[in-house]
Structures are given as C-alpha cells and as structure tokens.
Amino acid sequence: MKRLVSENIETLRPYTPGKPIEETERELGITNIIKLASNENSLGPSKKALKAIKNALKNLHLYPDANCYYLKEKLAEFHNIHPDQLILGNGSNDIIDLSVRTFCSPGDEVITSEMSFIMFYISAQAQNCVQKIVKMKNYTFDLDAIKAEITDRTKMIYIANPNNPTGTYNTKKEIDRFIKSIPEDIVLGIDEAYYEYVTARDYPFDMIGYIKERPNTIVMRTFSKIYGLAGVRIGYGITDAKLANYMNRVRQPFNISTLAQVAAMAALDDKAHVRKSRKMNREGMEYLTKELTTLGFTVIPSQANFLLIDLHKDATELYEKVLRLGVIVRPMKGFNMPTGIRVTVGTMEENKRFIDALKQSL
Q: Which CATH number is 167's domain given?
C-alpha cells in the first residue's frame, strides 16, 4: 500500500495559535476575558480602516483585484520603491511560505535560529528542506553561528528582527557585517513584523535599502501588529523585482481579499493611530517591566509589543491560574522554555489586570 504522506508531513507539528477568547469562555464558563497572547494591537484597527471596510461591503459578490494594483501603488509610494518589488500575502507568514515554495527544493538547506517564528520551521519542513536551527546568544540571533552553518546546499536564511517570541533585535552594525559576509546567491529573509514598534537607535531601520546592493533579500512586513488588522490577514514582502515575479507565479490568485486591500490602504494613511499605538506600547512596557521585576521575574528587554518573562519555575501552573482569572497569555514550553511566558503589551487597564491576576496566582 502506498504511503499517504511523506515523512516530513507525517512528523510536521502544526502551528498552534494563541488561545481564542471564545474557546476559553466555552471551556471555563467565564466571561470578560482579555487576550494578551498573540501580540495583537489592543487599540484595535484604525477608524479609517473600519470605514473603508464598511464602504467595500457592497462589493463582496465580486472577486478582489488579484494584483492588488492600488495597494501596491500606495505601498510603493510609502516605501519609495517600485510596485514590481512587492509581493502581497495572507499575512507575512504567507510571504515566508511563498519564499520557501518558490526558491527551495527538497534537500536544500534553510538556516534560522531556535526560539523564533514557528512558520520558518513549518514552511521549511513542509517543503522537505534540511533545517539548520542555530542556538541563540543572549536570546538573540547569533549571526556568526548562522554564518558558520552555511554550505553549498544553503538556499535560504531567515532572521526575525525584532524576534518573536524574545523581542530582541540585531543591530545595524551586526546586520551590515553579516550581509557582507554571506554568499549573494542565498535568499535572505528578514521578518520585520514588529518594525513599527522599534525605538532602539542602533536598529537597521533601512533594511529595504539593502535590496539594491543585495537583490536576493526579502524584507517582510505585516498589517497585523501595529495597524491592528490581524483579522483580515494581510502582509507583504519587499524584494528585487525578479524575485517578486517568481513568487507571484507561485502565489495563489485572489489571496488578498477586497476588505484586506481597502483596510490596508486606509491604515497607511492613519499616522495618528500608529503614533497612539506606539505611545501605548511604550508606556505599557515600562509599567509591566517595573511590576514584573519587582515580583522577582526576569524580563527580556523587548523592541516589539510583547515581553518574554522568565518565571524561574515551571510556568504551567501559573499560566493555568491566570487563565482561570480571565487573562490569556502565551506559555513558552513549546519553545523549549518551560519557565517562560510571553505577554502582549495591552491597554493600561489590561496590563494592570494581568499584573493583578499574576499576583493573585502567586
């Protein structure tokens, strides 16, 4: 009898999302739950985006623009690039998956780090690639260690900057040195899902500029985080026009809905919403860091909209207790950190409720 699936699919662990509010309400029979598990923007989407979605509802019987013409034009102007350099996806995770399926064949090597975005691993394994998972250095991508793993079979390298779930980042100096030292024929994917939250002055804010010098580079962004559009699913990659053309051949038609396209365009125009989100994040992060440190926990400094917390003991019991008090956070056992939890920075009211639930659980 023929085997139904190959071994790489048989052993593939599916992505486990943050626990939904509705599921928790059903399981525990409680209400008034807050979710601080998936790094969403607690302020919600821009009012301009909501208005754009409402205006587009009358056209839901029509297929969306498969090429996302107007959104590409707007993004190209926003980033000072050509529209042909853009690849649109159903979230930035779609861009990751598209890049592996486009550029990698079974047996090609994909290098990334441990404790990073799980779609790096899932997409590579689904394509039957050889994964090289490099240990972190102080919760941060060890670029020298990644470079040491490169062979003639290496096809792609993925770096999340800032990284999820650690919130750490690699500096401009580190990225500069790394890019100049690796072969040009390796496709380098830089996941910048949390780019808009970064405040560190030595962060490489100009990664898009590297594409001219190194065409085999893909910079990935998303509307799911600071723009608050996680529910409509839209992300994008910026790369050389040649790479974007290849990826568009693999991309499914109509992968970006009409609602996602109009919402993204409107969100780009709402700079006040972005500023308000940044301010809320900075203030919340300061509050949470102070409170958690006072409680004796170790907080990993973050440039994203979440904090990785080492409780210095198995986190399972504390996670369950906090959950029963109506606060959903993310346990880190699946990332080989059984003593850790990750918590999204929410509104100040949500942050205080999390701290109160934590204190009660202790």
A: 3.40.640.10
Q: What mean pLDDT is predicted for residues 353-361?
A: 97
pLDDT digits (tens, 9 = 90+) for 290-301: 999 999 999 999
∠ Cα 157 85 188 (to 5°): 10
Does the pTM exceed 0.70? yes
Provide the token pair at 109: 């090597």
153 and 72, same domain (yes or no): yes
Query: 85 in a domain, yes or no?
Result: yes
Cα 305 to Cα 40, 73, 135, 196: the distances in Å are 8, 28, 23, 10
Bridge partners (DSSP) listed for residue 190: 159, 219
Q: Among residues 241, 269, 297, which one ends one of the domains? A: 269
User: Contact 144/113 with Cβ under 8 angstroms?
Assistant: no
Query: Running DSSP on this structure, what letter comes out for residue 20?
Result: P
What is d(CA 193, CA 168) in angstroms, rounded to the nearest whole number?
13
Q: Which stretch of DSSP H or E encloses residue 139?
A: none
Alpha-carbon distance of 217 to 240, in angstroms, equals 7
How would DSSP label each residue in 264-276?
HHHHHH-HHHHHH
Which of 126-133's residues contact partners 24+ apart within 8 Å by CB, and which partners? 126/8, 126/9, 126/12, 126/97, 126/100, 127/100, 127/101, 128/6, 128/8, 129/100, 129/104, 129/155, 129/156
Q: Is the dihedral of CA 162, 163, 169, 173 positive or negative?
A: negative
Phi, psi of 48, rounded to the nearest 5 degrees: -65, -40
pLDDT in tens, 244-276: 999 999 999 999 999 999 999 999 999 999 999
pLDDT of residue 338: 97
* 134-145 pLDDT tens trace: 999 999 999 999
Angle between helices 92-103 and 118-126 (to 10 degrees): 30
- 197 falls within a domain: yes
